[in-house]
## 1
Amino acid sequence: MITMTRSFPAPRSLLLGTGGYVPEQVVTNGDLERLVETSDAWIQERTGIRERRKASDQEAASDMATAAARKALEMAGISASELSMIIVGTISADQPLPACAVHVQRNLGVTSIPAFDIAAACAGFLYGMSIADQFVARGQAKYVLVIGVELLTRLMNWNDRTTCVLFGDGAGAVVIGPNAEAKDRTARGILSTCLFSDGSQADALCIPAGGSREPLTTEGIEQRRNKVHMEGREIFKNAVRNLVSSSINALEQAGVSAGEITWVVAHQANLRILAQVAQRLEVPMDKFILNIERYGNTSSASIPLALDEGVRDGRIKPGDLLLMTALGAGLSWGSAVVRY
Ligand SMILES: CC(C)(COP(=O)(O)OP(=O)(O)OC[C@H]1O[C@@H](n2cnc3c(N)ncnc32)[C@H](O)[C@@H]1OP(=O)(O)O)[C@@H](O)C(=O)NCCC(=O)NCCS
């Protein structure tokens, strides 16, 4: 476990801008009824998802990531040439090699800064934000672009109703920069982050083939072993427990109580998971910024997309206290408390 507590009282890095992007094509539950044995009623009742977005054949993850990044840079009032680092949370990069982040870097016309991917699945954005926070707070980086992007519709087995109804495509981005005027914990910025993984659960959510353990073969492709496999029930139980415990951890590190939280910006895998998290943290559901109904599970994009929507529609205001929490394949999970 890694928890990042400030040894000083004031937050040193803050969110300067947010951006989001979703592809145009909408795939409704009704569309999926024509593909697999499922129903709109089952999907809505068991997950809270009504529709999701699907990237066009011409779009790759870095295209979506770049679109979200440009919006975040614009809101931050920062030009791409001022960036010190680009971090992308993704498991659906354009290619196995090189990183999605260098494609974003090229799209933005930037050179000579580090650009790398984080493979922490749905927790990828939180991992990236935590790393950015360390560099900015220590003064080793000024402006860091952190992106969560997933093009998961390309990684689905469209014959498997237990996974294909859940996921969607999208990207979200933030620009993190120094908070020169921070005096105490009431100042705006990242107050705490905590990260965890448990490799004993690695098989519960995975893509079995296509790596060095099981290189891709024709047989593997036929058996869809290059697509997402998930033990949903197992993940569900772990998700509720770990999202709650890491949230409590992040709140304690930040020195705030759950009751003080203005908005919860959580990874959105299943509305029932979030309802149980809300109940255990004793935070009402109307404090959650939700997008699962429209976008499904967009993995690492889910938190920055929801954040961007909340900021742009005026729900999230400067000074609001945000709790972020995510869990995904690994298992990897984490939480953060941010005064926006
Ligand atoms: C996947 C998930 C939605 C399944 O919901 P669930 O309520 O746990 O459903 P179960 O897996 O217990 O399955 C119940 C039944 O519904 C069926 N079912 C599964 N998917 C279905 C679908 N799309 N449509 C209709 N029926 C479906 C199952 O086959 C099972 O049928 P059976 O009882 O005849 O065996 C849920 O487990 C989940 O959200 N898991 C966590 C996902 C997650 O957090 N992932 C990590 C982050 S990416």
## 2
Amino acid sequence: MSDRDLLMIPGPIELEPSVLAVLGERQRGHLDPVFMKRFSRVLKGLREVFRAPTAQPFVLAGSGTLAMELAAANLVQPGEAALVVNTGYFSDRMGLALTRHGAEVAHVRSPPGAAPSLDEVKKALASQKFKVMTVTHVDTSTGVLAPVQEYAALAREAGVLSVVDGVCSVGAEALDMDAWGVDCALTGSQKALGAPPGLAVLLAGPRAMAAWRARTQPVRSLYLDFGEWLAIHEAYEAEKPSYFATPPVNLLAALDVSVGLILAEGMPARVARHVRMANAMRAAFKAMGLTTLPVSEGLAAHTLSALYYPAGVDAALVKAVAAQGVVIAGGLHPELKTKYFRVGHMGAVGANDVLATVSAVERALVASKAAVEPGSGVAAAERALA
Ligand SMILES: *Cc1c(COP(=O)(O)O)cnc(C)c1O
């Protein structure tokens, strides 16, 4: 391991130097005018990143899982039914969060690497009266990119709130909450938003806020109650002092820098760059004879690749790649954990990162005596990037 190793896991990710630099500033208080200005900019900026001009943003100390639980705690009441469109490990987790907050949860599942068809989702939605439907935009355990726009349209037709777990997508994959009719979307700071871990981010659209206002029972968690946080976020957005629980001042400063970089690049350009980098990665892996876990190109995420180990190679590959200076991740889906590995390519990722990563995987495969021609992956990536 060296200080110059490249971190290419599906979060946390390599950060821009300016994002890291702001963490080294003097400690500011949570009512410091500079901090209030930053928090305000973050809240306004997130509406642009999520393309949700009328949504209410919430940013709390916690990880992506807290953002999932924030949605569950506020949008369902005990006894209400929730449908989980299940594409893997993180969809299962959403089911657990909903159950913990009293929902009756049904799943519409697909085998690992696939996503439920629109017909299957439509049928599931018609099977009973659901309050919410959740979708994992990119399931980080399988690398599957779900057709959120189409699913959300079905939920809207059925009068069901749609909740998108965008922890591995927001800031990199196309998402247009407003135009797609997504009622709630959430993420964590350490994935495609390009900030350190530690912030749970959730945007609740008008229908989600109305559903929360119409609750007849209190939210069972004090810390997670929209009711405790709404006025605080409104005050910060207006750069006015307010307090419920101390905001993570330093992490919000980092997120402010990172959201600024995202908006300077522009979401359409950023999405296009992620597509380019993902395609180059995929061309390289294909040239090396590797098979992706997603069963079709259209279902493959642009924020990470999930690939089966080739014949004769096992999970030791992850360490062998680390020995080449690039940190990648092993499998996560319980059924297939030991059979595949994952490479993250989100955030500030550029051509140099892609080539370094492809080369490290290639060198490790060659060293593992896999049937890979040295240079074949790098050549394919370079052609795709040209
Ligand atoms: C990473 C991830 C989570 C969990 O986020 P944490 O920050 O680890 O709590 C949830 N959903 C998806 C899709 C993820 O990729």
